Design the sequence.
């Protein structure tokens, strides 16, 4: 068989794709490798003490606070985001003007800097609702911040489900709600989980919005109305003080590992859900 001749333009595009892929991978490997090399030697047992002191600068309270914030933020954002996506795709009509306005608003909210969400949370949750510097105020602020991301990814995942599945379900006598629960959502679940993973990553790495709402108290919160610091805020506090630079790199290692573990856990749940 005669081999197809590659045109110069196609060859140039292929070289650029390979070059950019290599640069991206190299930058990521260098960044992670540098943080690991600087932080792993300082992962000492005292760094994981249950109580934070100025000597051990423990990350355990920050890890616990991070998990609490993730669960609280997702518990609010997921039902609203997925429910809104279902309404916009299955009930409102895909060519509805109202749907276009909602999509434009969602995309606009997704591009707003996190510091603006922090100022909104400070004014609304802390001042107006009188939550004060608390885990509740920070979680509610983050739930609003990740809501557009979850909503858009869920909407795209639902739209990607073939219409033939809907028509086949309706032809067998199933109702709209039954079709959504038993056919559409299971088929769209991998895409929805991708949005959840992105939302978790943004929550874990967020600091600006939480400084104005959750505070920076380095202790395990006893209730949702207590102040606390997440891993990102803990890392920011250590690096800005300049007294525990080595421990700051160790905290960065812990932050990376937490993000990787959460992504692996979400991916495992998505694969099991898809198989079932």
Sequence:
């Amino acid at each position: 068989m005669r081999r197809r001749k590659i045109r110069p333009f196609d060859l140039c595009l292929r070289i650029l794709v390979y070059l950019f892929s290599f640069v991206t991978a190299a930058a990521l490997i260098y960044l992670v490798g540098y943080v690991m090399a600087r932080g792993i030697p300082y992962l000492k047992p005292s760094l994981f003490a249950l109580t934070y002191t100025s000597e051990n600068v423990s990350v355990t309270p920050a890890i616990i606070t991070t998990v609490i914030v993730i669960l609280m933020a997702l518990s609010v954002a997921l039902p609203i985001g997925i429910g809104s996506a279902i309404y916009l795709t299955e009930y409102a009509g895909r060519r509805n003007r109202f749907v276009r306005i909602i999509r434009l608003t969602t995309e606009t909210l997704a591009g707003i800097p996190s510091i603006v969400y922090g100022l909104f949370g400070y004014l609304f949750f802390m001042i107006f609702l009188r939550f004060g510097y608390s885990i509740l105020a920070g979680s509610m602020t983050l739930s609003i911040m990740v809501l557009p991301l979850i909503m858009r990814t869920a909407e795209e995942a639902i739209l990607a489900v073939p219409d033939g599945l809907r028509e086949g379900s309706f032809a067998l006598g199933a109702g709209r709600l039954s079709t959504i629960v038993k056919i559409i959502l299971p088929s769209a679940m991998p895409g929805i989980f991708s949005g959840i993973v992105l939302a978790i990553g943004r929550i874990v790495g967020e600091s600006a919005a939480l400084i104005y709402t959750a505070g920076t108290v380095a202790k395990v919160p006893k209730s949702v109305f207590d102040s606390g610091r997440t891993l990102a805020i803990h890392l920011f506090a250590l690096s800005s003080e300049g007294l525990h630079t080595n421990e700051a790199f160790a905290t960065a290692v812990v932050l990376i590992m937490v993000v990787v573990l959460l992504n692996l856990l979400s991916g495992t749940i998505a694969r099991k859900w898809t198989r079932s």
In short: The chain has one domain: 45-275. Residues 45-275 form a domain with the MetI-like fold fold (CATH 1.10.3720.10).
